[in-house]
């Protein structure tokens, strides 16, 4: 809608230049960090219509629960309510059933992000009202902007759709209402070096890409300036269903490669990432079979109707990497010690 896609290319390139640079409180590629708290069971479903945020922490603004689910509202400039899972998963499947917000330049998004800045994204910019976007980053590499794709979605602001990611060591699938709309193979991400492969936390939030204080490129990417007098703008998340393919109470980076084979999953009490621990079990050997099994059964059940949807149009991606800088400016800082979008 509105902008032809070639304009978005240009806008996104600008936006990305202006705003990319995610931060992390401790990058295990560089130093010894606390181990990541894992989800130590296979499944965790959260129904936000039941009146509680469950195992999700609010890291910016206020998120309430309503009959429609968790409600993320922008009332005024600077609002960017966000929640994140209090645990990490290491390969898995995440379904987020959500209805995105109205309003020029308003971005409703959920992402997976790791301590060394691997990232998998879904986002919907209100201005492009029949489009949603998929994206990914490996180790915070933002030197190119050809990773994003656009997917057609019908009435995302009036209809709840399920935006999913199925993530294994071999490939990432993005699914819309159970239909695979994009697949990224490990080798296709700079021979795996830019492939998201480290334990991830899930973040869900809303922000104003069209905030008048943002760079011109970001505003263009978001489809124009946000007019806060048209608000409030609300994004609803009905439920999040998570499968963790490597259930464990903690994940540890055993070296600084950021390679998935270096990650140890353990149920033992440990405090730091680096260094050896005999109580940990190696994930690399067992993970593949269990994740492949789990994901293929998910696919089998969902891809029967899979002929539609994938109108993937490659375009420049600016992505939630700039969530961080925009937020940092607009909101101040998130909870100390947490990474930012
Ligand atoms: C980690 O080290 C790399 C390479 O030295 C550097 O580019 C990156 O900015 C560092 N990350 C953080 C969070 O300091
Ligand atoms: C998240 O919230 C839980 C309580 O629900 C709390 O125990 C935990 O410390 C919080 N985590 C962070 C990182 O703030
Ligand atoms: C970053 O991404 C670019 C473009 O895909 C790639 O050429 C480059 O090798 C990557 N850098 C690293 C350090 O992986
Ligand atoms: C968005 O706008 C449409 C059309 O005006 C309206 O039907 C819908 O309820 C709005 N959705 C939200 C989440 O406000
Ligand atoms: C940790 O415990 C859970 C629950 O018993 C189990 O499913 C999982 O396989 C264990 N993980 C490891 C790495 O031992
Ligand atoms: C850990 O295991 C290795 C090899 O199995 C063994 O050599 C080492 O002594 C063990 N370390 C501890 C602290 O138990």
From TrEMBL:
InterPro entries: Beta-glucanase-like, CHR-like, ConA-like_dom_sf, Glycosyl_Hydrlase_16. Its main location: membrane. The keyword Cell division does not apply. The keyword Cell membrane applies. Residues 1-26 form the signal peptide. It is an enzyme of class 3 (hydrolase). CDD domains: GH16_fungal_CRH1_transglycosylase. The active site is at residues 119, 123. One of its GO terms (molecular function) is carbohydrate binding. Pfam families: Glyco_hydro_16 (PF00722). Residues 35-230 form the GH16 domain. It is found in: Cell membrane. Keywords: Cell membrane, Cell wall biogenesis/degradation, Disulfide bond, Glycoprotein, Glycosidase, Glycosyltransferase, GPI-anchor, Hydrolase, Lectin, Lipoprotein, Membrane, Signal, Transferase. Belongs to the glycosyl hydrolase 16 family. CRH1 subfamily. This is chitinase. It comes from Penicillium roqueforti (strain FM164). The lineage of its organism: Eukaryota, Fungi, Dikarya, Ascomycota, Pezizomycotina.
